[in-house]
Amino acid sequence: MTNARAHTISVVVPVYRGATTLPSVVDELIGLAAGFRTPDGHDAEISEIVLVHDHGPDESDAVIRELAATHDAVRPVWLSRNFGQHAATLAGMASSGGEWIVTMDEDGQHDPAGIGPMLDTALREHAPLVYAEPTNPAPHGPLRNLLSKGAKRVVDSLLGGHDTRLFHSFRLVAGEYARSVSAYAAAGVYLDVALGWVAGRVATSPVTLRAEGDRPSGYNLRSLLSHFWRMVLTSGTRLLRVVSLAGAALALVGVVFAIYLVVARVVGAIEVEGWTALMVAILLCTGAIMMSLGVIAEYLGVAVNMALGKPLYVIVGDPAEGPLGPRPTQARRD
Predict the structure, then answer these.
(1) Cα angle at 131 between 16 and 146, to 5 degrees?
(2) pTM for this one?
(3) Which residue among 74, 222, 285, 320 is the one 20 to 30 A from 60 at the CA level?
(4) Whether residue 135 sits in one domain with residue 220
(5) CA distances in angstroms from 215 to 72, 106, 242, listed in the order given
(6) Cα-Cα-Cα-Cα dihedral sign, residues 130, 135, 136, 137
(7) What CATH code is carried by the domain that includes residue 228?
C-alpha cells in the first residue's frame, strides 16, 4: 500500500494574555499532531506548536512551561520584552521548521479544524498564502468590527496595491516564504503587507469564528489606532508619490501663470507698479520649493522601501518539489 508523504505544519501562536485559553487551544492542536487527512484527501500533521511569549500581564509564561513539559510538540520561544503581535508572530515564523506555517490567536476563536481546508485551498489554487475568510462576524463589538472594515477600505482606496479586506491573523503560509519574510522585515512592518511582498498568489478559505475565551482583549483604542497607522505607513510609498506629482504639477502651473502675468503687464492689463514682479517671484519660488519637495519625496520613497526591508527578490525552492508540489510516495506496511 502506498501513502503520500504528509505535509508538516508548524503552528505559531503569539501569546500575550493566554493563561486561561492557551491550554484548550494546545489540546486541540495536539489532536492533529499524530496526523490527519484533509477533506480533499491530503495527509498532514502538526509537527510543532510554537508558543511565542510576548510578556503579557498574566501568568502565560508559567502555562507555556507546563505545556512544553507535558507535550513534546510544544516549543516555547521567549522574547526579551513585549514587542507586539506581529513581531511575536515573525519571531515564531523564524523559529519554525515546517513546510507550512499556520498562525492563529491564543484566545480560541480560531478553530484548528479549519487548518485542513486551508491546506486544501493552498494546494488546489497553488497559493503559498491562504487567509481564513470568516463566514460570521468577528467576536468583537460592532463598533470595533465597523472601524476595522472602514480602516481597511481607507488603506485600499488611498494606497492601493493591497487587498486588505483579506488580512486575517488566522493564515496558512508556505514555510520558506514565511521565514524569508521574517528575515527581511524591519521593525514596525505590518506582517500581512510583508507577506504580500513575496506571495505571488493569495487565496482564502471559509471558516467559522468561535467566541473568544473568557479574557479581556489585548487591544485598546490607542493600540488599534497604532495598528492602523502602521498598516498605512508600511503599505507602500504611494502617498510620497502623490507629494512628488503634486509638486511637479504646482511648479508647472506656477511657471505658466508667471508667464501670463508678465504678458499681461506688457500689454497694460496690470497697472499696479511692482505687483507683477512680486507675483512672479512668489510663483517661481513656490514652484521651485514644490519641485524640490517632490524630489525629496522620491528619495524618501527609496529610503522607506529599504528601511522596511522590502526584498529585491526572494529565492525559493523548485515549486514542483516544494510544499505546493505533488507528494512523493513511499511504501507503508499495514
Answers:
(1) 70
(2) 0.72
(3) 222
(4) yes
(5) 27, 11, 43
(6) positive
(7) 3.90.550.10
Picking from 50, 38, 49, the residue whose alpha carbon sits closest to that of residue 4 is 38
pLDDT in tens, 275-322: 778 888 887 888 788 778 777 777 776 676 666 666 655 556 666 667
Sign of CA dihedral 255, 260, 261, 262: positive
pLDDT in tens, 250-285: 778 888 888 888 888 788 777 777 777 888 888 788
Look-up: residue for cell 508556505?
A: 174
**310-317, Cβ contacts within 8 angstroms, sequence gap of 24 or more:** 310/184, 310/194, 310/197, 311/180, 311/184, 311/197, 311/198, 314/177, 314/180, 314/184, 314/197, 314/198, 316/174, 316/176, 316/177, 316/180, 317/176
The grid coordinates listed for 181 are: 519574510
**328 assigned to some structural domain:** no
Closest among 234, 152, 128 to 185, alpha carbons compared:
234
Closest C-alpha to 154, from 238, 53, 259: 238
Q: Cell numbers 514542483 correspond to what residue?
A: 320
What are the residue ranges of helices labelled H in the chain?
A: 22-30, 60-70, 85-94, 115-125, 142-159, 175-184, 191-198, 221-234, 238-266, 275-308
